[in-house]
Amino acid sequence: MMELLTQPLVYTFMQRGMLAAVMVGILCAVVGSYVVLRGMAFLGDAMAHAILPGVAVAYVLQGDILIGALIAAIGVALGIGFFTKHGAIKEDTAIGILFAATLSLGVALISTIRTYALDLTHILFGNVLGVSDSDLVTIAILGAIVLLTVILLYKELLVVSFDPVLAATLRLPTDLLRNVLLVLIALVIVVSLQIVGVGLVAAMLVTPAATAYLLTRRLPVMMLVAAGLGALASIVGLYLSYYFNIASGAAVVLTATVFFFVVYLVAPGRGLLWTARRQAPRFSK
């Protein structure tokens, strides 16, 4: 058993990949708690695909793809905040419009790149085993910014997420806080690109947080449980990827999904088995 656990870690690329995957799993879970509580799962998926134009432009200009993705993600986040600021357009409508527009622009740009099938595949599906030392530094810096912001604005984001009316009564800058949350989601999505790719990043935002939601009603506990589940899914997923020779991002997401199904069945007081047991007819002697 010890050999099974230690053998993959002999390789430097596995060590870097494991560290990156754990960091991303924790970040996605913490920010994903807000995503789940506010019913913003579609936003995570839309913003993940909306970074394609930035990736394509950076690739064409031979620049840093991560920077291109970051600029595109923040631009889309602020665009959603702008269109929904005065309430003329609902958030899901703005997301749908910008999602379709940016995705189409990204596809149009990528289609002009003759070698995109080989060079941009890792953006779509992730390549955790290709993480470099500079990637680790970038993930650590952006991750620290995200976590520090969540800690500093915890109470404000909590009020805005659970009771927007109270937030307005307290004269909190609700529009600014909403934009901050959107930017945090954008940062996490960009950080997650290397690990799970555009196609699967929304799952890492939602699944560990949704699993934790079934186990607790308190946001701080939910964040901690979700972070633990995200990190564990990342570790188990990488081991499965190594031993079964499957895509690492897909293995991580499938592991997180298995955790969700197990908790959905057996969560104390709220799981499917507990609910069925409560509703089962009781016969008196």
Care to describe what's here?
With 285 residues, this protein is mainly α. The chain has a single domain (2-279), classed as ABC transporter involved in vitamin B12 uptake, BtuC (Orthogonal Bundle). It is 78% helix and 0% strand. It contains 16 helices and no strands. It has helices at residues 2-6, 12-37, 41-50, 52-60, 65-83, 91-110, 116-119, 121-125, 133-152, 154-162, 164-169, 174-196, 201-213, 219-244, 248-266, 272-279. Helix 9 (133-152) packs antiparallel against helix 12 (174-196) and helix 14 (219-244) crosses helix 15. The longest helix is centred in the N-terminal third of the chain and has 26 residues, at 12-37. It starts with a helix and ends in a 6-residue tail after the last helix.
Question: What topology emerges from the helices and strands here?
Answer:
Blueprint: H1 2-6, H2 12-37, H3 41-50, H4 52-60, H5 65-83, H6 91-110, H7 116-119, H8 121-125, H9 133-152, H10 154-162, H11 164-169, H12 174-196, H13 201-213, H14 219-244, H15 248-266, H16 272-279
